[in-house]
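User: I'm putting together a small comparison set for a docking exercise, and I want a reference complex before I start. The sequence is below, and the ligand is adenosine-5'-triphosphate. Could you produce the 3D structure with the ligand included, as structure tokens?
Assistant: Of course. I'll restate your input first, then give the structure tokens for the complex.
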Amino acid sequence: MSSTRRSIAEAAGLVWHAGPMRAVCHALVTFVQAALPVAVAWLTKLVLDELVRGATVAELAALLVPLVVVGVAIAALPQLSAYIGAELGRRVSTYALDRLYVAMERIVGLGPFETPAFLDRLRLASQGGTMAPVFVGSAFGLASTVLTIGGFIGSVVILSPVMAVVVLVAGVPALIAQIALARRRAKLMLELAPVQRREFFYSHLLGSVEAAKEVRLFGLGAFMRARMLAERRTADRAHRALERRDLLVEGGLELLGALIAGGGLIWAVLAARTGTLTVGDVSMFIAAVAGLQGGLSALVSGIASTHHQLLLFGHYADIVHIEPDLPVAADPEPTPPLRQGIELRDVWFRYADDLPWILRGVTLTLPYGKAVAVVGLNGAGKSTLAKLLCRLYDPTRGSIHWDGVDLRDLDPAGLRARLGAVFQDHMTYDFSARDNIAVGDLRALDDLDRIKAAAIRAGVDDAISALPDGYDTALTRMFVFTLKRGKQPSTGVTLSGGQWQRVALARAFLRDHADFMILDEPSSGLDPEAEHDVHLRMRRYRADRTSLLISHRLNAVREADLIAVLADGEIAEQGRHDELMAADGLYARLFRIQASGYQDEAVPGPGALPDGFPGALPLPRPPDLP
Ligand SMILES: Nc1ncnc2c1ncn2[C@@H]1O[C@H](COP(=O)(O)OP(=O)(O)OP(=O)(O)O)[C@@H](O)[C@H]1O
């Protein structure tokens, strides 16, 4: 199916879903409205002819009463039409957005969200979705204009077929020009999407609480504002150029229309003078030419704007019909409870074909019931490995197996239901404390006991209980909340970094049914005592469960059943802590460096640090300050 036809079918489906009766009513009112101007023109012509003929009052009344009724209808119907159209529009828009976000859930991995072209299309799609009612309204308007034009053409044909042809032919170049303009407008929108996204990005940074600290500390306000305005000016320039063209075309069309109307009027008056036309015919002619001119101009701009909206709506239809980004088996196997373990077999991975390899042939087994730790320098690929295990990406080469079954053959949602994870860059939602923990398992949303138990395990229960509204306290300063009746609205509170980290841990603990737990730097923001405490809790909780722990705190991983050291995308060494210390490789060096930091000895000089370790290179001297 062509994309235009698909978009039209999609729009028709939306309208039908929004309410068939409403759509039919809207169509009826629209079409009646369309016929009214033609009726007025004909009735006026008849009244004038009857007047000239010297008709009786009764004869005139037979025409005047319908004329008054039509006039009343012309006054009342637009309001009714607007009311039905607005309700239809709201329903179409809500349903369209729902479909859009349902479709986005079909995206299995992270790849599309890191692809600028996809993000641009997504922005246009959500615009297309919210514009669905406008599109539907334009389509109805177009149909109504066609009806009005049809009525007037019929009238002009009756009076003078030659004039009807002239008026119609004059409309064709305008139609073509407007459609070309609409195409250019839609193309421009796609071209400007990255510019507008960057502008939004800077304006968001300037107003975001996350960035506010650095923006003030480093004096970034003017710098970011300049960049934001530069993006805006780029978009303005492009719009201006387009609108100049628009202006020329529109101006030309108006001129052409005025000339035709003027010529037609002179012809009609001269024809009435010689008796070829009646006075009523002249009035009909004036109304028909004006109606046709107005109708054609409305048709031209209606087609152009509907075409433009259709192109925009095409992005919406594309996203609504999006295929999963990672292959999903037609009949995926349910993910069974883990019994043997997870195996990475010669896994190679890079984020894109033009980016360097991050993992180069990683083969590693995470046996069932064991705690495996992965350590390595910054950028070694540890978090990448964790994301591959969640199937947020697929290996570029090689495979990952869950009890021998390739992850690609499992249902992604089923796999994730068996996983628990705390990511290094966990989310801090502007929700209540209760909701912030419950996102780990939404079934616990109304089960405060479960939420509390998870918070106790993560060691954050005391802190949350001490908040003004306990677990119902909003963890945000961004919104005003009224959580309890009769209470003043409050703006909530924010937690410290370490407390947030514990909330993220509580989310993971809520998934106590998870077969496999991934903990990516779960304690990096904690003070030493808290870190020790969290690791004790995790060890107790994770005993006999399969887990992967990623940490730079080597003291935290020393008790793992297996420690794998990732370097240059490969497993450089693996074994238990004692074995790795005895091997005296990278792990042993890193461990000794960290241990020395805790002892009362001189810290080794930069030369003693492994390549790439912070501090391994002498830092260049900063330029002298003015
Ligand atoms: N989404 C992405 N797109 C492109 N490259 C990425 C992406 N995420 C990570 N990388 C790159 O992959 C490499 C490995 O990153 P990763 O986050 O896996 O390292 P890490 O070992 O967890 O590091 P750290 O110890 O600093 O957390 C880095 O060079 C990083 O720049």
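The chain has three domains: 2-320, 335-418+515-620, 427-513. The longest helix spans residues 221-273.
User: Thanks, that's exactly what I needed.
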